[in-house]
Design brief:
alpha/beta; five-stranded parallel β-sheet; 2 domains; Rossmann fold; single chain; two-stranded antiparallel sheet; Helicase, Ruva Protein, domain 3; globular; 13 strands
Amino acid sequence: MSREDATTGGQRTGDGDPKMLYETVSAEMQRVLVGNEGAVEHLMVGLLTQGHILLEGVPGVAKTTLANLFAQVSGLDYSRVQMTPDILPADITGTYVYREHTGEFELQRGPVFSNVVVADEINRATPKTQSALLEAMQERSVTIRGETLSLPEPFMVIATQNPIEMEGTFELPEAQRDRFQLKLTIDLPDRDVERELANRFDDDPELGPGRVTQVVDKQAVLAAREAVKDVHVASPVVEYILDIVEETRTHPDISHGSSPRATLAFLNSAKARATIHGREYVIPDDIKTLAEPILAHRLVLNTEADLSDVSPADVVADILQNVEPSGAGAEELSLD
């Protein structure tokens, strides 16, 4: 099978149908990946909505492998930057290098010029270097010595961070966390999943990203993005989103709630989730499922909540309990 004519099981997967795209990518990734099906779904949501993803988890839970697998099976260019305190902005964006044999400066593009950029342990980079990603994430372009250069399409940043080793790290500021459409927590596997992992690697010690095949192409991804734009969001669902976001601004445990960027993240992510589940309209369950990945990293809790060991996830769960969606049924939501 050629990389350009990617198929799986004899079925063409380049027609841009989001549901088929997701199922094909997920099935191929599961040849190596054990568990984390929810993370694959959210990565696809990010890809279909030009959203960036923050992965948080202890070392060894396959955060980087997850991103690498996703890029390979989707036919996307992939680059990885190991963030450390001595990484400079130019190490990410690129710079002009003087070539003595030509007597001219030549642009040397940095790893940000890829479809999928993995910023490993992003909180180990200095704030100055972290900020080098801001323009790329928001504008999908970078400026090098006054020249603005567009980044490839599709483009997404997948950043990872370790929540337990804080020495020598620089916490992401609120402005940068807000740039990530979704934050996913990669938990330790349960016993059954870990047994399956052990068995697979016992049978094939070399199992890894090199064992998967490209099963879709960039054109299919771009076509699927266009299909997401046509998904219908009924008025009751929009009101439900607005009610949830407004609650983050008045909740007693929150000192700073979510901005309109969170509202748009709900809107776009819910459309993508609807399509990969075979629907042409959004339902309240899409919003509920996405609430924690969209909101938890954006909320700034007050001192009293911090001292009481209240987590952002706890607050999101409380908000969902307090805010009820409209009683409209699926048929009404699809026709509104």
